[in-house]
Amino acid sequence: MQKSYRAQNPGDKRQWFIVDAKDQPLGRLAVVVANKLRAKDLPTFDPSVDAGAFVVVVNAAQVKLSGNKEEQKEYQRYSGFRGGRKTFTAAEMRAAHPDRMIKEAVWGMLPKNNIARKMMTRVKVFAGAEHTHAAQKPVEIKL
After folding, report:
1. pLDDT tens digit string along 75-120?
2. CATH code for the domain of 135
3. Is the pTM of this model over 0.90?
4. What is the DSSP string of 37-91?
């Protein structure tokens, strides 16, 4: 009799990966990060189990946008009050919060549920080349 295998939550044994966003297209970078968070690259992938890894993204301020997206792409925030919607271009977002560009792109590629909210806590985005997770010895991902 064969027994079926069900992936388990790895707990403290999660892997750490580092991605350099310098001159990488935003969408392609977000796909790689989202797949590592969901553990879609593992043979034991199960959409109902949170078995993904930690992902550190460095050089977020130097991510590449193609075409005229720097001036035409818009991000929105809403405070919840009447007239509380604010819109920003990608250039304004890059100047103020370059990490949010990557986080919003990754969030758009994850399912909208409780597991995805936990996954987003494992994305660590830094605008420059320095990061605070060297002690975890992350493995570099080449794009």
Report:
1. 999 999 999 999 999 999 999 999 999 999 999 999 999 999 999 9
2. 3.90.1180.10
3. yes
4. HHTTTSTT--TTS----EEEEE-GGG-B--TTHHHH-EEEEE-SSTT-EEEEEHH
